[in-house]
Amino acid sequence: MTTIQKQGAAAVEAARFLSTCGTEAKNKALAAIADALESRMDEVLAANALDMQAAKKSNMSPALQDRLSLTADRITGIAQSVREVAALPDPIGKVDSVVTRPNGLEIKRVKVPLGVIAIIFEARPNVTVDAAVLCLKSGNASILRSGKEAINSNTAFADIMREAITSVGFPASCIDLIRDTSHEGANELMCLTDYVDVLIPRGGAGLINTVVQNARVPVIKTGVGNCHVYVDSKADLEMGAKIIFNAKCSRPSVCNAAETLLVARDIAKDFLPLAKAELDKMNVELRGCPETQAILGSSVVPATEDDWSREYGDYILAVKLVKDVHEAIEHINRYGTMHSEAIVTADNEAAELFVNAVDAAAVYHNASTRFTDGGEFGLGAEIGISTQKMHARGPMGLEQLTSVKYVISGSGQVR
Amino acid sequence: MTTIQKQGAAAVEAARFLSTCGTEAKNKALAAIADALESRMDEVLAANALDMQAAKKSNMSPALQDRLSLTADRITGIAQSVREVAALPDPIGKVDSVVTRPNGLEIKRVKVPLGVIAIIFEARPNVTVDAAVLCLKSGNASILRSGKEAINSNTAFADIMREAITSVGFPASCIDLIRDTSHEGANELMCLTDYVDVLIPRGGAGLINTVVQNARVPVIKTGVGNCHVYVDSKADLEMGAKIIFNAKCSRPSVCNAAETLLVARDIAKDFLPLAKAELDKMNVELRGCPETQAILGSSVVPATEDDWSREYGDYILAVKLVKDVHEAIEHINRYGTMHSEAIVTADNEAAELFVNAVDAAAVYHNASTRFTDGGEFGLGAEIGISTQKMHARGPMGLEQLTSVKYVISGSGQVR
After folding, report:
1. Roughly what angle, to the nearest 10 degrees, separates helices B41-57 and B23-39?
2. How far B39 CA sits from the closest chain A CA (Å)?
3. Contact B232, B345 (CB under 8 A)
4. Do residue B413 and residue A371 have CB atoms under 8 angstroms apart?
5. Closest partner residue to A246 among B19, B389, B414, by Cβ?
6. Domain boundaries of chain A, sorted by first residue
7. Bridge-partner residues for B405, per DSSP?
8. Distance separating alpha carbons of residues B318 and B314, to the nearest angstrom
């Protein structure tokens, strides 16, 4: 057996332990993790300093360095979020349907954990803790594999969490980290069909595509977002400008940020200047169709076909005029990534058509796409945002980390 | 574009049509299918005769010939089952949760179709119709790919269904059949990530493994069943004998039939002869552990390690003595396929332990494993039995062919 296979087999054993574990015991383990993260903060900071040193040496971009960096405050925040997960309701054991059949069999459907969840992510150390504790609270063992840029920080986090849970009687393998950060290590984890029930990749389009092409275990795709805001001919134009500014600029790097603005041709002459005035505040680069250029002038970069598919993750926005809600729907279903899509309109019929016909995890009427988030949806926490339709769609909280089991009670029935 | 890519793209278009289609329209299409199957029965019978001719020429086994063969009665039965699917409640459009957030956003979670469902199956022509109509009723487009042995029958079924739905205004591509029965055709369908939302393979372990190894689209594994009956020391022995006889013999070829009998050592001397007397009625070959042989004598074939993992699909049963419920659970979790598992006992504590700790889609207390079936569970019809934990587990009815979409209504909210 390879090291990773051994980790897989141990995770299956740990998952069996967790599947019959009560809420109180799981919460005790989570409390032990939160306490240990605070009391052993110095170890994490020392490990993170090594990662930061290497990051500087390799000229990592300031934005990525910021995501990688840990401070005492950030670690306290992470420990606090562990306590918040402990306080969430436990989804496991709930009976979500029960029927008694004419033959007297009682058939109950009960929520159970998925089992072993693998998570492959990039260089964000906080994800290590977030993912591990959401899995543990929902009764799942986790196998984490992070980018090599954060390996020292993540090893420290993993060691601390593993020791904390063993101190309250849990197998260490309820949480595990792949310490081999090579591509081979990631590939082996993606193909561990004997041990892994679900794999959740968290990261950019490159990571997601690698996983879809290489994984043999079941995958939940997350996070790639080419999101649109469509401002309809019946829109409140001020509202439209406020919404596109927020959807583009409040945090351009995240997956629920807007990448394309679609505008109904009728109101474009009035609306585009309003929108531009807002977007200029953050110096947003506009890449527009010829009609947009004709209205807004030479500051608009000509958009190419490629722009309609881009997830810029930056202060860049593609802009296109469309005839009406039908053409907007067609454009979104053609170029979108089924993440978050918004219509701004006072016309309820157009809104209804849009939310029904647009094929996406979250469809908004008169609100910013930026709300697609576990916290904003009231799930308490999220492990990612699913952009596929199988198993889970949209923000995934504890409920989305469960499966079901049928429990059938009889008195000797045969068929 | 290849032929199969074109079929995929057309299915996506058809799925968009179906996703906004009301229940009444879908039921009208189903009624048209049922009527056409009856009125064009002669075409199906003629096509099936070609398949049967080829089957005889290639010395197909009588059991498989029986599965392949269609008669007027069978086609009437298939048409009738289409009408039963039409009568089932439509899962689409149901709001399964709604919250109003402190910021005034109303967040509804609505049931929507999965989109395009691909189904790869073996030489059972009735599956063509079953699968297509369950997908259509739940608003999904289907792309079917059957074994070449049934291609004439399935082509006739597909043509009749496609013409029936176009007669009531539906795009033909709501239902499509891959007419290329080569392995290359199947492989292309498994990798159609741009068009296929979910792939459901229906068939034996060989087919399922090929799909798991080769698919790039999301897969729901179905049907491989190495099911166990454990007769506990506190069991009603008559009930135990009746249940193992039913679980093994009522239909040995199906996935919910039992393959291994586990018996608590304490009661083995009393129970095994009782069980053997029942199983002898159907000349079941017993493959036992040394202790089983010692009790039942030389008619028992010595079991090898391999026998604990076999899905015989035949009148053969592996038999093993275990110490207690704990050892039974361990054996099942080691060798089982997470399908259906039963305990026979009057000890409620042992039963509770068993149903909680055994990791399977369906766990039975004092009943036969043979009940794991959409009809028996009251789902009305099933498209397969999922043995994975992601998305669906156990019998999959219409509800399991759905996804969700979040619909968010605001009044200009930004984040």
Report:
1. 60
2. 35
3. yes
4. yes
5. B414
6. 3-221+388-409, 227-371
7. B110
8. 11
Among 3.40.605.10, 2.60.120.260, 3.40.50.720, 2.60.40.10, what is the CATH number of A3-221+388-409? 3.40.605.10
Q: What is the pLDDT of residue B380?
A: 82
Q: Does B205 have pLDDT greater than 90?
A: no
Q: For residue B123, what pLDDT band results from cuts at 50, 70 and 90?
A: confident
pLDDT in tens, A331-371: 999 999 999 999 999 999 999 999 999 999 999 999 999 99
User: Nearest Cα to B198, choosing from A389, A219, A205?
Assistant: A389
Chain A residue with minimal CA distance to B370? A415
pLDDT in tens, A150-197: 999 999 999 999 999 999 999 999 999 999 999 999 999 999 999 999
Nearest to A88 by CA among A166, A30, A20: A30
- Binned at pLDDT 50, 70 and 90, residue B214 comes out as very high
Q: CB of A192 within 8 A of CB of A217?
A: yes
The number of angstroms, rounded, from the C-alpha of B296 to the middle of its chain's C-alpha atoms is 36
**Distances B366 to B242, B336, B338, B339 between C-alpha atoms, Å:** 10, 19, 18, 17
Which candidate from A101, A216, A360 shows the least CB-CB separation from B213? A216
ipTM over 0.85: yes
Question: Are the folds of B3-221+388-409 and B227-371 the same?
Answer: no
Which of A371, A400, A404 is best to mutate for the B interface (most B CBs within 10 A)?
A371
Tell me which CATH homologous superfamily contains domain B227-371.
Answer: Aldehyde Dehydrogenase; Chain A, domain 2 (3.40.309.10)
Instruction: State the average pLDDT over residues B30-55.
Output: 98
Three-state secondary-structure class, residue A11: helix
Collapsing DSSP states into helix, strand and coil, what is residue B237? helix
Strand partners, A262: A230, A320
E strands, A12-167, where? 95-100, 106-113, 116-121, 141-145
Find the mean pLDDT for residues A75-91.
96
Euclidean distance between the first and the last CA atom of chain A, given in angstroms as a whole number:
43
Residues 6+ apart with CB under 8 A from A127: A119, A121, A146, A202
What gap in Å lies between CA B319 and CA B292, rounded to an integer? 7
Question: Whole-prediction pTM value?
Answer: 0.93
| B402-413 vs B106-113, strand pairing mode | antiparallel
